[in-house]
Structures are given as structure tokens and as C-alpha cells.
Amino acid sequence: MANVVLKDIIKRFGSVQVIHGIDVSIADGEFIVIVGPSGCGKSTLLRMVAGLETVSSGDIFIGDEAVKDKEPMERDIAMVFQNYALYPHMSVRQNMAYGLKIAGVPKDEIRQKVDEAARLLELTLLLDRKPRQLSGGQRQRVAMGRALVREPKVFLFDEPLSNLDAKLRVQMRLEIKELQNKLGITSLYVTHDQVEAMTMADRMIVMNEGVAEQIGTPLDVYEMPRTLFAAQFIGSPAMNIFDARVEKGQVRLGKIALGKTKCKTGAVKLGIRPEHFIPAKQGKLKVKLKIAEPLGANTLIYGEVADTNLPIVISLAGVHQIDGNNDIMGFSVDKAHIHLFDAPSGKRLAD
Amino acid sequence: MEKRVTFRGWLLPILLIAPQIVISLIFFFYPAAQAVWQSLFIPDPFGLSARFVGLGNFEFLLSDPFYRASFFTTALFSILVTAFAMVPALFLAVLADRLIKGSSVYRTMLIWPYAVAPAIAGVLWLFMFNTRVGLASWYLGQFGYDWNHVLNGGEAMGLVVLASAWGRISYNFLFFFAALQAVPRSVIEAAAIDGAHFWRRFFTIVLPLISPTTFFLLVVNVVYAFFETFGIIHTITAGGPQQSTTILVYKVFADGFVGQDLGSSSAQSVILLFVVGLLTVIQFKYIEKRVHY
Ligand SMILES: Nc1ncnc2c1ncn2[C@@H]1O[C@H](COP(=O)(O)OP(=O)(O)OP(=O)(O)O)[C@@H](O)[C@H]1O
Ligand SMILES: [Mg+2]
């Protein structure tokens, strides 16, 4: 177990820079989720921590020890790959024992550790099978088992659940989180699934184009997104973003005044989450309703802000019907749920 | 998972495999049958009549010390050629696999030897090791080694092995290289994280994963050493000195076409047929079991 510190990490592939200076300090036992769209550099960052990719500049510390110039095997880490990367010619038991055998652990101890891990992951009956005789979920568990028998200082996960079906994904998500809680091993977990990020992370790193847009707890990111990107990436359905203006201390969306602000006059990006609209007869925000999608627990309503053609998504608890097309409905928004971002830079504006 | 095409009716499938069957019949079964038939006779020197001797040719062969020596020569030769053709090829492929950039140039250069016809390759090596004017033998002479494959059986064997294996290295290299490239990168990385250093990874992960290719090449190279090295042996040593490089196939030729003993030559062909059949069965039965597909 160990803390992990990344200091101003930069990565270039030839002349192309893909990671632009990431700083993060991870406490011992913390579960960090790195989340971001495809190609933003999540895997690259993780692979640098693993030692599979060189660091162009910056430093990595694991347990206060600089590891930048160390081989993967000297870093005392374990990694679960997206495609599991099991050794196809070895049985499940051999797969899990491989690292221990190399470390020179005595045979009885290997047997005991593998048995224990297998019990924990419910793989006991599969120990003599080859990877190709396993289902996707079982393979995933073997990959987990291979990582955890070694009791490393740090676990690294690169989208370990993305090859599983939705139901299994939810189940494995819980299992991984539970296991990590129990073992208390510092973990870095890469995913592009924001639900996984929200549910699993102690803290998350929201990445975009090689930059850490925000580092914080899931609720932090949800309630106080530091950037427009973080605001739109976290939360489902995504936050509504409108081009708005601040005039005379008032936030204005077209002609509608939505509340006071201390921000200075000018163009801003206004963000409101779909779930933060409150139906109100006298609400200032009039919405022309177009389509309703009942999801059971809630209903998604797609429409346009009246008198403009700005698209808007609203999520209401319970089941709602819209009868005629183009009904107009009034909504109000709590001032606390209004997010303002600087128009060109996308940075959050102080409220 | 098997992918099979199913045909309705029987005409089309028969037509599709007919060329292969016809070719096999004409060029394989017919000569083989004729060899079996001829091996039971001793023809007179002019080929005008033949005397039936049953298994006499075989009896004579198996008690002939030269023939038995040729068995041993063949075994030694095939093992050496296969080893010298495969081990360096694998080694070069591993190097090429590590160095991704520039590997296409490297690869192309390694393919050249394969493009040289066996007889030409033989002449090439013959020149280099010519006892009077050869470059290589001159250098060896500078180091105080008196190279003379014309008189020394061991040196003759070394030279034909070298000349035979050399051209195959590039062929084997290509297959090994492709196989290495097909080993998933993440599996190697997982092994690296598990603590395995390069050679450990090579022996415990890479080698088992490329074993289907290795097995295939083993079969192909043994067959090559048996049958396709004729041109090289013929140009470099002509089986000599004192039959020290006369492998079974060369002996079939030497006894049959040079010695004009067609009965014995046919009997040798038949024995060869059995040997190869046996080898193939052994290879598939016993080695394939240890191969991970
Ligand atoms: N070996 C490489 N050489 C050159 N560019 C690379 C290399 N590996 C990755 N990249 C580039 O670096 C960027 C980040 O890649 P990375 O694999 O880290 O993305 P990712 O966030 O993991 O995406 P995904 O969710 O699709 O896995 C991409 O633009 C990619 O093209
Ligand atoms: Mg990735």
C-alpha cells in the first residue's frame, strides 16, 4: 500500500504532445477514477504509472519513491487490462501463480494464496480451465485474481468492464469496489463511462485532450464543475448549456431573467442540469414541449425554450405525458443550480 | 469454432477437389506404385529384362553398411539443417520484433537469401570455401586452420549444412516474425508487470504462443532437409568424400542414375517413403499434443 504522486506529467509521441502536465496526489488506499472521452490520454497516463510507457517530463512517485526510470516489475504494481491479457496457454491457476512464481514465493504459499483469491472471486471450480474456456465475466475475474494475489502497492485498471454486458458490468463494478474497500489498496481506474466514475470513485480525474479538467469527489464534480467540459461530461443526460448574457447583475437567457449574479457584464455560458427544472405555472422559463421519454422512475422531456429555438432537455420525476404537440409549460430554476462559465475559456465563473 | 462450407449435392465438391486428386494420382501415386513394383526386380544392365527377386533388394540394402551409414548421415544432416535454419531465424525475428521501426528494410534484406536458387547457392558457398581460391578458406588459413572439405568428411558435412540452412533462414524468419507480431502486446506487458524479464517472457510466454508456427516450420524444414537439398549437395560435394554427405535421397540418385542399379534405387525410394510417413505421423501425434493452438 502506498500513496501515488504525479508531478507535472507530460507525454509526447514524437512531436505530438498527448498529455499536457498532470498534477495529482493520491492518498494511500484511495480509489481514483480517470474518466474522459476516447483518445483523451487516459490509457497513456495509466501506462506511464505502470512503466509501460516512458514519461517525457515530470515525475511519478509510488510510496514516496521516484519510479520514473524503473521497469514495470520494479514498481510493485498490478494491472488489469481491457482485454484481460490472460496467458492463453496457462490454466487459471497458472495465470494467477505466474507473478508469484517469478517472485520466488514458495510453492505451498503460492497454492494457498491462489486458492484464497479464487475463493474470494468464486473461481475455485474454474482453476484448471484455460482462459478460452471461460466467459467474459469469468476472464475478468481471473484478471482481477492475477492482480490481487500479488498484493501490490497499487492496482491499475484500464477499462476492465467495457467488454461486459450491462448487467454484468453493474455487478462487477460493485464487486471491484467492495474488494478494493476490503483490501485498501490504492487504485487507479480508467473508464469512459461516467456512471462507473460516479459510483466507484473516491475522487475522479476528469480528463479532456490530455488535460485534467477537474480533480475532485464525484459530488464535487457534479455540484461544482470547474469547467464547461466537466459540466457536460458528468451527469446523464448531459447538462443543458445555453449562450446567455449577464446584464446589470442579472443572468439573462434571451429576455428571461433567471437571477442575480456578481459576475461582470458580458456573454457567458449558462448550464442547468435536466433534473434541476421545477415545474411552475408562473415559472419564468417557458418551454415548448416536443417529445417525452418515460423511463419509469423519471421522464425525459425534449423541447425548445419558447420564443427561441434553443433545444432543452428536462428530467422530471415520475411519469408524465404530453398530449398535444407544442404545449407550453412553465419552469423555475433554483439559483443554486445555475452554473455560469466564461464563454471563450470554459472556466467556471465565481457565483 | 469451425467454419465450414456445406454443399448441396456432390458434383461441385468433386469437381473442386478433382485437380488435386488428379495431380496426386499422376505425380505421386503412379510413380510411388511403380517404385514399389520395380523394387521387387533386378533389371539387367541394359534395362531389357528384369528378374523377380521379391524382397531381395531390401535384404541386400539393410545389410549394406554404406546404406546404414547413409541413414545416420541423413539423421545428422536433417537435425543440423533444421536447427541451423530455425534457431538463427527465430533469433533474428525476435530482434526485428523488438525494433519496430526500420524493420521493413531489415525484413526485406533478410528475405534475399531465399530468392537464390539452391544450386546457385551451392556454387556460391563452393566458391567461398574453395580449397585453393575461396575467400572463407583463405581467412581460415590465416588463422592457421587448413580447410579442406574435399578430403575431410566433417568439413564437407559442415559446408552442406551451412549452405542448405542459410537460404532457409529467411523463409523461417518471415514466419517467426509474423507469429511474433501476432502475440498480443498486452499479454507481454502483463508478463512484464508480473515481473518477468525479457528472456523469461520469451521462454514462458512467447515461445509457447508461437508454438503452432514452430511446429509447422519444424515439419517443413525436416521435409526440406530430406528432399530439397539435393541441388546443394550435388554441386558442393556430390555426396562425398567417401559418402560422408550422401543422404538417403542423394543415394537414390547416385545408385539409380549414376550406378544404374534401378532395383536397389527403387527399394530405397520405398524405404524413404516409409521413413517420411513415419516421421510425419510421429510429428503430428507426439509433438502436436504439446502445441497450444
Ligand atoms: N504509441 C503511440 N504513438 C502515437 N500516438 C499514440 C500512441 N498511443 C496513443 N497515442 C495517442 O495518444 C492519445 C491518447 O491515447 P490513449 O490511448 O491514452 O487514449 P484513451 O483516453 O485511453 O482512449 P480510449 O478511451 O479510446 O482508450 C490518442 O490521441 C492516441 O492517438
Ligand atoms: Mg484507452
Second CATH tier, the architecture of chain B: Orthogonal Bundle
Total separate domains of chain B = 1
The count of β-strands of chain B is 2
Low-confidence stretches of chain A: none
- Give the strand line-up of the largest sheet of chain B: 1-2
- Specify the structural class of chain A: alpha+beta
Helix share of residues of chain A? 10-25%
**Corresponding CATH superfamily of the largest domain in chain A:** P-loop containing nucleotide triphosphate hydrolases
Q: How many structural domains does the protein architecture of chain A include?
A: 2
Could you give a short account of the major beta sheet of chain B? 2 strands, antiparallel
- State the total count of DSSP E strands of chain A: 20
Into which percentage range does the β-strand content of chain B fall?
under 5%
In whole angstroms, the N-to-C terminal distance of chain B is 12 Å
What does this structure look like?
The complex is a heterodimer of chains A (351) and B (293). Chain A has 351 residues and is an alpha+beta fold. Chain A folds into 2 domains: 4-233, P-loop containing nucleotide triphosphate hydrolases (Rossmann fold), CATH 3.40.50; 240-342, no CATH class. In chain A, 24% of the residues lie in helices and 35% in strands. Chain A is built from 8 helices and 20 strands. Chain A has helices at residues 42-50, 92-102, 107-120, 136-148, 166-183, 194-200, 218-223, 228-233, and strands at residues 4-13, 16-26, 31-35, 57-62, 65-66, 77-80, 154-158, 186-191, 203-208, 211-216, 240-247, 250-253, 256-260, 266-272, 277-279, 285-294, 298-305, 311-317, 328-333, 339-342. In chain A, strand 11 and strand 12 (250-253) form a beta hairpin. In chain A, helix 2 crosses helix 3 (107-120) and helix 2 runs parallel beside helix 4. The longest helix of chain A has 18 residues, at 166-183. The relative contact order of chain A is 0.12. Chain B has 293 residues and is an all-alpha fold. Chain B has one domain: MetI-like (MetI-like fold, Orthogonal Bundle). Chain B contains 13 helices and 2 strands, in the order αββαααααααααααα. Chain B has a two-stranded antiparallel sheet with strand order 1-2. In chain B, helix 1 packs across helix 13. The radius of gyration of chain B is 23 Å and the shape is globular. Chain B starts with 10 loop residues before the first helix and ends in a 6-residue tail after the last helix. The relative contact order of chain B is 0.13. The chains are: A alpha+beta (351), B mainly alpha (293). The complex binds adenosine-5'-triphosphate and magnesium ion. Residues 42-43, 158 of chain A line the site of magnesium ion.
